[in-house]
Amino acid sequence: MSQGSTVLPTTGIFSGLQEQDFINAALAALVSNFSGPSAPTSPTLYQFWVDTSVADKGTLNWFNGTVWTPYLTIDLTSGAITFVGGLPALGLGSMAAENIGASGMGLADDGHGNARVVFPWTNVSTNQTPASSNHLTRYAVTGPVTFTLGRANTFFNGYGFEVKVESGTATFSPSSPDVIWAGAEGSAGASLTVAAPASVFISTDGGASGNWYADVIYPSALSGYGIQKSSSYSVQPTDNGLTHYLTGTSSFTVSVAAASGFPNAFKIRFYNQSSRGILLNVNSITAFYLYPGQSTVLENDGSGWNLSPLVQRYIPSAATTLYVDGAIGSDSNDGIAPGSGGAFGTIQNALNVARANFDVLGVGLTIDISDLTLFSGTYNVGAGVNLNYIMPLRDVQIVGNPASPADVVVSCSAGGTCFSARDGNSTATLGSMTLSTTGNGSTLLSVSQSAVVDLGDLNDVNFNAAPLGNHLIASTWASINFLAGYEIFGNATNHLVSENNGYINYGSFLVTGVSNLTFGTFAVASNCGVINSGGVAMTFSGFGAVTGTKYLASMNGVINSNSTNYPGSTAGSTSNGGQYA
């Protein structure tokens, strides 16, 4: 409480601290509304004063130029505010609702002490024939219900009633030869049927022309109400305005029929709160998955369905895994769970879906292909798996069976490439699998045009035979990096090829082979290609009786072996500026 003066001294000598005290006293008086048990002296017009003479109460007064006038009292114990002089709130207080007219029209408390006029709803589920006495009646319809409208000229000008279609339909049928006008909802002379949820006001001009009028309003905004769904279902017209919360741990399908079966301005929101992808199958829109945490709004604009947003990318908050199972998976699944109801059927589809829909920068993406026939089997990939343009994914790992890489085989057809990658700004990692082919002229891994592929981050990538073909090729500024040892089970024209500024990098790993393998040349570097053993010699073991040339460096190609003894029966060579060290 403070009633200090708000006038600062303008004469005399005082210290800076004294000046601060004057200012603080003035501010305290203003902030507290000059509160105190007695009125402040020398008041000015419109000045406030809180009278604190009564314990635990404060009465706000204002100065009218002559006297202090009380305005309201605040009870500090209860928090109640009482207007002095009995200024009332406009309302009914605890009074019961009072009827003030026909059709149950009355006054009711709005919950804040104020009066409001109410027109109670009349619930109907059977056909109706409104009379003149039903003016301003409000019908809440559980349809189907038909309203038979008598001759318009038997009703007074301005007659009308309201219908809220809560479920089903309401049909308005004027007596012949009368007509009903409802704009886009109908044409003159036709009966009008309105589907829930909607509000309709029916009126007439009471003239001899026989006109009835329908003002139809469909909800145009989401209501804030919602329903939960955890299994496949079809959206209904009665869902208008609702948010559909999609929940559970299983993937399911939401179906939406043609927009013509729904009211204009029909709008709902889908919010995926589940741990799975939910398939939205909307008529005239390509089906797509709504992934965890995503939402979209579906609206009928009168010409068809619109989704907002129509396209959105999934941005997971943590490392994400997509599952592939060539035995029991399906490319129509969501891919974010293993097994028949979750896993994709092909590696390529997993990459395509991730590339088109996922942003995993900073969290990473793993494509798990280990479930094939309970961790053992072959993926026949035809011409091969395309790793191109994986830039939106940045770093993606494709992983087989870490416990037994030989049990998960990725096999291409004759002349194909098991995995091919091109174009930079991204890295693909392969691990825990074996690459193979079913015919001649294949390359098991080809990397080009600045792409980067790492091998063996989790476990080794092994190589079966590639007759008349190559195990690995890096070209045009692309890189292949070995991050672990591996095994070679079959022949090839060349095991390693680095050409046209390609780069293959080894480390101090163990490469295990089998006896009697045949290579044209084990390691080839040409046209400025580089094969680098990483500063430490590689170790090759188990390569008994290998046939072929150890290495060839030509056309300024470089093989930095660090004394690595490559497998082969014939010494390596250099030509045309090639270097071997």
Low-confidence stretches: 89-103, 108-114
How many helices? The count is 2
Spatial gap, N to C terminus:
92 Å
Provide the helix percentage.
Answer: under 10%
Total beta strand runs: 50
The portion of residues forming beta strands comes to 35-45%
Number of domains: 4
**Biggest sheet, strands in spatial order?**
26-27-30-33-36-39-42-45-48-50
Described by the principal axes of the CA atoms, the overall outline is flat
Average pLDDT value? 88
Query: Main β-sheet: number of strands, strand sense, barrel status?
Result: 10 strands, parallel
Overall SS class: mainly beta
- Gyration radius, rounded: 41 Å
Give the helices and strands, then pairings.
Blueprint: H1 16-31, E1 48-51, E2 57-63, E3 68-75, E4 81-83, E5 98-99, E6 106-109, E7 115-118, E8 121-124, E9 138-142, E10 145-149, E11 160-167, E12 169-174, E13 179-181, E14 192-195, E15 198-204, E16 211-217, E17 226-229, E18 233-234, E19 243-246, E20 253-256, E21 267-272, E22 278-282, E23 288-290, E24 295-300, E25 305-308, E26 320-323, H2 347-357, E27 365-368, E28 377-380, E29 385-386, E30 395-399, E31 408-412, E32 417-422, E33 427-431, E34 433-437, E35 443-448, E36 452-455, E37 461-463, E38 466-475, E39 479-482, E40 486-488, E41 492-499, E42 503-505, E43 510-513, E44 518-526, E45 530-532, E46 539-541, E47 547-554, E48 558-560, E49 573-575, E50 579-580
Parallel strand pairs: 8-9, 9-11, 10-12, 13-16, 17-19, 18-20, 19-21, 20-22, 26-27, 27-30, 28-31, 29-32, 30-33, 31-34, 32-35, 33-36, 34-37, 35-38, 36-39, 38-41, 39-42, 40-43, 41-44, 42-45, 43-46, 44-47, 45-48, 47-49, 48-50
Antiparallel strand pairs: 1-2, 2-3, 3-4, 5-6, 6-7, 11-15, 12-14, 15-16, 21-24, 22-23, 24-25
